[in-house]
Design a protein that fits this description.
Elements (H helix, E strand, L loop, with lengths): L3 E2 L4 E3 L4 H4 L9 H10 L5 H4 L2 H4 L8 H16 L3 E3 L5 E8 L2 E11 H6 L2 E2 L6 H14 L1 E2 L3 E5 L3 H10 L6 E4 L5 E7 L2 H12 L4 E5 L1 H17 L11 E8 L4 E3 L1 E5 L7 H8 L3 E6 L11 E6 L2 E7 L14 H10 L14 E5 L3 H10 L5 E4 L5 H9 L10 E3 L9 E2 L6
Parallel strand pairs: 6-11, 8-12
Antiparallel strand pairs: 1-5, 2-3, 4-5, 4-10, 5-12, 7-21, 8-11, 9-10, 13-20, 14-18, 14-19, 15-17, 16-17, 16-19
Helix pairs in contact: 5-7, 7-10
């Protein structure tokens, strides 16, 4: 049984929402970030980058920086850039990108669901990142970017959302990347009760994106609970912000690899070694992407190749071993190109499938990398297979959309805001 809780969102006023909501700060380079901060005084980026306003530099992650983040957020509230809803609500969110429509529900998930495994994971978290994010939450006391969850399609919830979005949304705006964002506030007791009851029948929720945010929220919640002699389990720190999409609504893209050099091998030597585990077909098309599971694309020396793994090089009953990303690592990246650790080796780069085969080709032809490998996208069933068997995917195995905006809806873990 999943606990999906309504909450009183702190959110931009209608006239400023398109100015406030921003991409994740990681989505901007330094020049883009500076331009955004200079051009838009309402951007949520000013909260995440509070040094810009006073010109006084602080160390990222320091208590001084975090206190400034919290102060800037409070200023956004006091200046009425943000308002807070008076009643707990669910928020239906719709994103339209490239003629694809995603419809989900923004709400709060339970740290207890995470700790007891009702919320399933497929990615390994890094301890120091967990701690860093925990300290961020501890000082700043808000969630501004929801974790992306998926759950098995529910006919009643799907129908409810379909009817709700026929009405006029609270927010409806398009960002400069040509993505349309719409939000509906669901606050009537009857409608809130319906959604809450339907989610109680959901046995398992899967994290699609946001493993570190989930882990850090659970760490903080446990710490606060242990230090609170009057802990009830209903305090705001027992929950964190999420957006819940039915499985059919999510789109999983490939996550591809590029390598800077061939580890001293010639192109012919690399191809000869690959033949031991793959059938190789030269492709004469300008661009090529894998057409099926266990087929890889490779661009090298201005040529595309289709690499199809021999059936004896992977175990089809092993959820991780049968992943194409793992096959590529075990049969090419590690033994031939000497890539031993995908997380730390600076010779390897990762390119999300949304950027297309064109980007892979460009990176190689411009000489930034020596070889590029394209992967066939992981299916939702395979992701669930890994999560259900408590296995972990290799790093950068999936790129899952939709991607959410920061500062669109904020969940406060300050008890005074509940």
């Amino acid at each position: 049984m999943a606990t999906i809780k309504p909450f009183k969102a702190i959110r931009p006023t209608i006239d400023k929402v398109n100015l406030v909501a921003s991409r994740s700060v990681d989505g901007y380079n330094l020049y883009e970030l500076k331009d955004k901060l200079e051009a838009n005084p309402y951007s949520f980026l000013h909260v995440i980058n509070p040094d810009f306003a006073d010109g006084v530099r602080t160390k990222p992650g320091s208590i001084e920086r975090l206190n400034k983040v919290k102060k800037r957020f409070k200023e956004f509230v006091s200046e009425e850039i943000f308002i807070q809803d008076e009643q707990p609500a669910y928020y239906i969110y719709r994103q339209i990108k490239d003629k694809t429509t995603f419809v989900g529900i923004i709400a709060c998930s339970s740290i207890n669901d995470y700790l007891k495994g009702t919320i399933k994971i497929h990615e390994q978290t890094i301890t120091h990142r967990e701690q860093k994010l925990k300290e961020y939450l501890k000082v700043c006391e808000f969630n501004a970017e929801p974790v992306l969850f998926s759950y098995p399609d529910d006919e009643v919830i799907n129908q409810f959302c379909s009817e709700a979005i026929k009405h006029r949304p609270e927010y409806d705006f398009t960002t400069t990347d040509r993505i349309r964002h719409s939000v509906w506030v669901i606050s009537s007791a009857e409608q809130v009760g319906l959604i809450e009851q339907r989610f109680k029948a959901v046995e398992t929720v899967y994290i699609a994106d946001g493993h570190h945010r989930s882990a850090s929220s659970a760490l903080l919640g446990k710490e606060k609970g242990q230090n609170n002699p009057n802990h009830t389990g209903l305090e705001s720190y027992n929950f964190y912000l999420g957006v819940f999409f039915p499985e059919s609504q999510l789109k999983i893209y490939d996550y591809n690899r590029v390598v800077k050099d061939l580890n001293g091998l010639s192109v012919d030597q690399l191809l000869s070694s690959i033949k031991n585990d793959f059938d190789i077909v030269q492709i004469k098309e300008e661009l090529f992407v894998p057409q099926k599971k266990h087929q890889l694309s490779m661009f090298i020396n201005n040529t595309w190749y289709a690499l199809t793994a021999h059936s004896n090089v992977y175990n089809s009953s092993d959820p991780v071993g049968s992943l194409d990303a793992q096959i590529l690592t075990e049969k090419i990246l590690t033994p031939l190109l000497n890539i031993k650790d995908l997380k730390t080796d600076k010779r390897i780069g990762f390119v999300p499938g949304v950027k297309g085969a064109k980007t892979l080709k460009k990176l190689v032809t411009e000489g930034k990398f020596a070889v590029a490998f394209g992967l066939y996208p992981v299916t939702m069933d395979h992701l669930k297979w890994i999560a259900d068997t408590n296995k972990i995917m290799p790093p950068k195995s999936t790129w899952i959309e939709p991607k959410m905006r920061s500062g669109l809806l904020v969940y406060s873990i300050e008890e005074t805001n509940q």
